[in-house]
Amino acid sequence: MDQRGPADQLAPIFVIIAASLWGVDGIVLRPALFDLPVPLVVFIESLTVAFILTPFFWKRFAELGKLGKRDWMIFLGIALFGGALGTMAITRALFYVNFVNLSIVILIQKLQPVFAIILAAILLRERPQKRFFFWAVIAIIGAYFVTFGINRPAINATDKTGLAALLSLLAAFSFGASTVLSKRGLKNVDFRLATYIRFALTAILVGITLPVFGLTRGLSLVTSHHLVIFLLIAFTTGGLAIFLYYYGLKKISASVATICELSFPITAVILEYLLRRNFLDSFQWLGVILLIYSIIKVSRVKISTREPVL
Asked: For residue 195, is it within any domain?
């Protein structure tokens, strides 16, 4: 019997909402920034959120001194994998396929839960019940059907497609690792302060690399329209989404959270219909049903843990 309280049972919903907001980000907002260098986009986005949050958290800076070296290493890993590498890798992969042959990029992204579950088992010592794995597989199958229907992914044997595949694999691993590290990072930190630390460290980490690669010149390309998009991201799909995500993640396992994140493709197909009138076929609707139902089932599975490695 599930012994979790009402708040814990609602926690997966916050992760689902956050992942849905990331879907809005990728389809509606972020495309408006694709004429800027990818690292610059990540830097400005992270700096904007950190700047907005600073007035609310400067009185709590004393709490940062209570964090140990291991906590700081965890958050550095979150900034590296979730804030920098993952975002830049998936965006660059989309560049390589010119937003036309997206199949290989999206398909490999479906491997993120696999990486997250394996890492959660190794680093956090999470031990899901057997039925978790059954519903996790059903969720991934559902996500596949939502994205492709009955059709096979279109994979072109070109050099750029190969590079896009490698970058997508790096993004899937990075986001999976970020989910696991974030779960550990929330152990000693309030979810609100964790959000601030994530964006601040990402801005510092990526900002250090900009002069090295000569990307500071790209600042001249930033227009007022770009700044409006950055602010929209900060208040919705960026800062707000991470707030919701960390709130939910603090109360559920990393394994459950990574399956809940598969709500992204549902958001994508809904937006495709609303914006481009691309209707779902019967197999895509089957995928929607499988995905929603399996996420509900997974969110109710208890995860046992031992002393984590981290």
From this structure: yes
Q: Are 236 and 24 in contact (CB under 8 A)?
A: yes
The span from the CA of 191 to the CA of 71, in Å, is 14
Contacts of 264 (CB under 8 A, 6+ apart): 19, 20, 22, 23, 26
For tokens 């940062």, the residue is 64
* Secondary structure class of 124 (helix, strand, coil): coil
Interatomic CA distance for residues 182 and 243, integer angstroms: 12
Residue from 85, 146, 127, 40 nearest 305 by CA: 127
Domain count, the chain: 1
259, part of any domain: yes
Angle, helices 159-185/239-249, rounded to nearest 10 degrees: 60
Q: Is residue 303 helix, strand or coil?
A: strand
Residue 187 counted as domain residue: yes
Cβ contacts of residue 76 below 8 Å, gap of 6+?
A: 201, 205
Local structure of residue 2 (DSSP, 8 states): -
Count of all residues that appear for the chain in the document = 310
Print the SS3 string covering 146-178: HHHCCCCCCCCCCHHHHHHHHHHHHHHHHHHHH
pLDDT in tens, the chain (310 residues): 444 555 567 899 999 999 999 888 877 888 788 889 989 999 999 999 999 999 988 888 888 888 999 999 999 999 999 999 998 888 777 667 655 555 566 667 778 899 999 999 999 999 988 899 999 999 989 888 877 777 766 655 555 667 777 888 899 999 999 999 999 999 989 999 999 999 999 999 999 999 987 888 889 999 999 999 999 999 999 999 999 999 999 999 999 999 999 888 778 777 767 776 766 788 888 988 999 999 999 988 888 877 778 7
Which residue range is the domain that position 238 belongs to?
A: 6-300
User: Is residue 308 assigned to a domain?
Assistant: no
DSSP-derived 3-state class of residue 26:
helix
